[in-house]
Amino acid sequence: MDEANELIQQRIRKLETLKQEGVNPYPNNFKTTHTSGEIFQTYGPMSQEELRSVGESFCLAGRIVAIRNFGKASFVQLKDRNGKIQAYFQKEIIGEEKFRFFKRLDIGDFIGLEGKVFRTKTGELTLQVQTFRLLGKSLHPLPEKWHGLTDIEIRYRQRYLDLIANPKVKEIFLTRALVIQRIRDFFNRRGFCEVETPMLHPIPGGATAKPFRTHHNALDMELFLRVAPELYLKRLVIGGFERIFEINRSFRNEGISTLHNPEFTMLEFYLSYATYIEMMEMTEELFCSMAEEIHGGLRLPSQGREIDLTPPWRRIRFKDSLIEVGGLDPVILKDPSKATEMAVELGLELKKGASHGRVLADLFKERVEPHLLQPTFITHYPTEISPLSRKNEEDPEVVDRFELFIAGREIANGFSELNDPLDQRERFLRQLRERPEEADSSLFLDEDFLLALEYGMPPTAGEGIGIDRWVMLLTDSPSIRDVIFFPLLRPEK
Questions:
Q1: 341 pLDDT more than 70
Q2: Which of 329, 411, 401 is nearest to 374 (CA)?
Q3: In terms of Cα–Cα distance, which of 156, 162, 23, 159 is closest to 480?
Q4: Residue 208 confidence (pLDDT)
């Protein structure tokens, strides 16, 4: 038997002994009065003399993460939701029987404590334990604190251990929660209504992506997990909701990478009587306000580089970026064959029958996107790759659309919405005609959405923002898996 299994067996034997002695190792009737953070906030500034005058006792509960034994006394590090606090167990105070029971506790066990605060000789604020209870027996030893938990596979697969062993990981997810809260505050202050739309769709739509399929037994019908909420949110705009937003989970049956997880979180919002210009302005305001409040400024570290969010952010047209940033020959903008030749030279895998606009998009992803370190709005995308966007009135070959890139990553996509039902129908039909024969049949003509559009939609602008990628930026995380509690992983062998 290896050492780890022996430790587990020892703890199981302790558990059995406790039960035989009539001790409930998993009680549920201990009440706390304070957290470690509350104690430090109130009593942290006090001197030892001032602490002596505090007559109050405190009840705390948490996990034992460290034990130091000194014969008739022991120090314990107790971890709760606010942090850690040191607790001092003294045999002459808690009694010989309780102290003997304490000696049977293990790192990882949950305990409830009652005691008073004092300062040790080294000045550390500490709880002098008067009594305690075992609240939950741990059967597995925790990762050694001096080594931490560094195995990436274990960190993602057993996130609970990651959270216990690596305090910075918890901070990432607290930041994520704060981002969600601040997004809601931002839009609520501007008169937006938060809505919910279906996650099960009879027809996948709103984005060009391969969906997950499922089946509803009672109705005997095929359904799809949503790839985007866009078409349902537009139905609400048609119905009179002029300012709406949804923080949604979407699903795409595609690859996994440091920037892609099959299940991800988006913010999508719509504002009637506005254009993509207002969307860009609102995006700057949203991101800068969150960075200042959460990070404390507009300069963010990003994997050894620095991102400066100070507005106004750079704006450059899609085709101009291919030349100015990507360094490509301008001839590719006019000659589809030259664009294809360039893509082949760069080793890009083009889809069969790819249009000129699609080839340019592939060239953009290869030659431009990685170089967009500072916040940049890329505008005026080709109409043929933007089926839901309004055509530009001066140049119908492009649309009133932008994508936001920061640190070489796409963060947001927004545009003035196409509200011409006849144009929308033709764009959908063109998508179907251009679909490769061997492609998965994930493109359908959404007649219900087209019918809704025929009743009339006001001029509207909309935008989708990848929340996971935004949190990556705010927390300087290298992978999307670092900001998702439970990312999708291959099954263990």
A1: yes
A2: 411
A3: 156
A4: 82
The encoded tokens of residue 25 equal: 């190792």
227-255 pLDDT, tens digit each: 999 999 999 999 999 999 999 999 999 98
Could you write out the DSSP letters of every residue in 311-376? Answer: SSPEEEEHHHHHHHTT---GGGGT-HHHHHHHHHHTT--PPTT--HHHHHHHHHHHHTGGG--S-E
One-letter identity of residue 491: P
Yes or no: say if 313 and 284 are a contact pair by the CB < 8 Å rule. yes
| Residue in 493, 440, 484 with CA at minimum distance from that of residue 253 | 440
Residue 59 β-bridge partners: 114
Distance CA 110, CA 103 (A): 14
Q: Is the pLDDT of residue 441 over 80?
A: no
Are the CB atoms for 237 and 375 separated by under 8 Å?
no
C-alpha R_g of the chain: 29
Dihedral (CA of 153, 159, 165, 168) sign? positive
DSSP 8-state class, residue 399: B
Work out the pLDDT band at 438, boundaries 50, 70, 90: very low
Map out the domains of the chain with their CATH numbers: 3-142 (2.40.50.140), 164-326+368-483 (3.30.930.10)
Q: Does 435 have pLDDT greater than 90?
A: no
Report d(CA 292, CA 325) in Å as an integer: 29
**414 vs 268: CA distance, rounded Å:** 9
Shortest CA distance to 129 belongs to which of 163, 152, 164, 101?
101
- Tokens for 326, please give them: 């990507």
Give the C-alpha separation, 243 to 245, whole Å.
Answer: 7
CA 377 to chain centre: 22
pLDDT, tens only, 370-397: 999 999 999 999 999 999 999 999 999 9
Could you give the count of Cα atoms lying within 13 Å of 282 in the half-sphere of its Cβ? 26
| Average pLDDT estimate for 52-64 | 94
* From 197-206, 276-285, 321-330, 359-368, the region with the lowest mean pLDDT: 197-206
Please count the residues of the chain.
493
Interval 263-287 mean pLDDT: 98
Q: Who's near 34: CB < 8 A, 6+ residues apart?
A: 58, 59, 60
Within a 10 A sphere around the Cβ of 474, how many other Cβ atoms? 19
Number of Cβ within a 10 Å radius of residue 180: 14
Q: Report the alpha-carbon distance of residue 319 to residue 13 in Å, rounded.
A: 70
Half-sphere exposure of 18 (CA within 13 A, CB side): 23
Cβ atoms 60, 78 nearer than 8 A:
yes
